[in-house]
Design brief:
The chain has 401 residues and is an alpha+beta fold. It has eleven helices and 16 strands. It has a domain of 246 residues: (Glycosyl)asparaginase (Glutamine Phosphoribosylpyrophosphate, subunit 1, domain 1), CATH 3.60.20.
């Protein structure tokens, strides 16, 4: 189902009843969109669709919308994050309340998640690669200047998001990788080197070895990668079409909640400036050296002061081919609501990879947010000034038709 078709369908969907639970959990069918802009019911902008109103008031509403976006909605801070990483969102929110910038808030939030080893998929001690080693990826983007700092496949350094911020602040580069990224960060004062493995991650690796190295990310090799650990040699006479088909059917078997998650976060500060960032330890049992979508600008996250921001999680090897967060922001620029933009980006991937697993949240400069997912149920967390605490929103996958 295309994004356009889904936007039409949204007008008839039963959004259900908000269910207030411990963290204000809200469940919706399809994708969720929360309107917190200056235009209430009957404004013509509710739920991303227009209602009839006099031309005069439509023009006034449009002018107000443009002015609000241009001014960055100063005074309306918000933090949005993938998953129910509520402590990370609280850390980012606390930074905003103390007057820190959106960039600093995102760094603080992601750093908290790294220290807490959120879901085992962020920070040290998670997602061991084929050699049993944990490596980290992170990225931070300033939506005002469009400056970016990122690190990937970082070894022996726990503070990946702070290393990314050092790349942003002290270099003209966008991305540093591997041991050299670690050396760069250490030279500028980050603590380390540190062992990123834990007894838990080593045990997970041993269990994987004992299970004939299943699952793994090899294909078109001998011996068969679905039943052995290798070492492997290439199959050189397999037709290209067969290689492609076999790989597409395997995606959903290797990626799942708890085995391949990312914290992607966006924030708008008190001055109306926006930033986005990510941190992850990548896919469990990845081939050493693999880099996912997290540190790739426009894939794991993206922010533009003129429009808004986006964060993504899921099968990064697939999602990075589509730059979904860049797509989301550009779709919002063209007038789609956050929920519509998120679903449109997901649908573009789904058409090519029906078995992929992934999710996106979107945030515009009015503070409106939405999400979409495919292959799993997605949660994202939000904190604003009119909330007592972090709210967690649940998004169910839309069934394509």
């Amino acid at each position: 189902m295309t994004g356009a078709h889904h936007a039409k369908r949204e007008m008839h969907v039963d959004r259900g009843e908000k269910e207030r639970v411990s963290l204000n959990d809200s469940v919706h069918s399809g994708f969720f969109q929360n309107q917190r802009g200056p235009f209430g019911k009957g404004s013509g902008l509710q739920d991303g669709r227009k209602t009839e109103m006099p031309l005069k008031w439509r023009l006034i509403s449009l002018v107000m919308l443009l002015l609000s976006a241009f001014q960055g909605c100063a005074g309306t801070p918000i933090v949005v994050s993938t998953w129910a990483f509520t402590d990370a969102v609280r850390a980012a929110w606390d930074a905003l309340q103390l007057g820190f910038s959106a960039v600093d808030a995102v760094v603080e939030g992601c750093s908290a998640c790294e220290a807490l080893q959120c879901d085992g998929s962020v920070g040290f001690g998670g997602s061991p690669d084929e050699n049993g080693e944990t490596t980290l990826d992170a990225m931070i983007m300033d939506g005002t200047t469009m400056d970016v700092g990122a690190v990937a496949a970082v070894r022996n350094l726990k503070d990946a998001i702070r290393a990314a911020k050092l790349v942003l602040e002290y270099t003209e580069h966008t991305l540093l990788v591997g041991d050299q990224a670690t050396m760069f960060a250490l030279s500028l004062g980050l603590n380390g080197p540190s062992n990123l493995s834990t007894s838990s991650s080593i045990a997970k690796w041993f269990n994987w070895l004992e299970n004939s190295c299943q699952p793994n990310f090899w294909r078109n090799v001998n011996p068969a990668s679905n039943s052995s650990c290798g070492p492997y040699t290439s199959i050189k006479d397999l037709p290209s079409s067969e290689k492609f088909f076999s790989r597409k059917e395997e995606y959903s078997k290797k990626i799942g909640h708890g085995s391949h998650d990312t914290i992607s976060m966006a924030a708008i500060d008190k001055e109306g400036k926006i930033a986005a960032g990510t941190s992850t330890n990548g896919a469990s049992h990845k081939i050493p050296g693999r880099v996912g979508d997290g540190p790739i600008v426009g894939a794991g996250a993206y922010a533009d002061q003129e429009v808004g921001a986006c964060g993504a999680t899921g099968d990064g090897d697939v999602m990075m081919r589509f730059l979904p967060c860049y797509q989301v922001v550009e779709s919002m620029r063209l007038g789609l609501s956050p929920g519509e933009a998120a679903e449109n980006a997901i649908s573009r991937i789904r058409r090519k990879y029906p078995a992929f697993i992934g999710a996106i949240f979107a945030l515009n400069m009015l503070g409106e947010h939405g999400g979409a997912c495919h292959g799993w149920t997605f949660q994202y967390s939000v904190r604003t000034a009119d909330m007592d605490d972090v709210s967690v929103f649940t998004v169910n996958p839309v069934v394509a038709s």
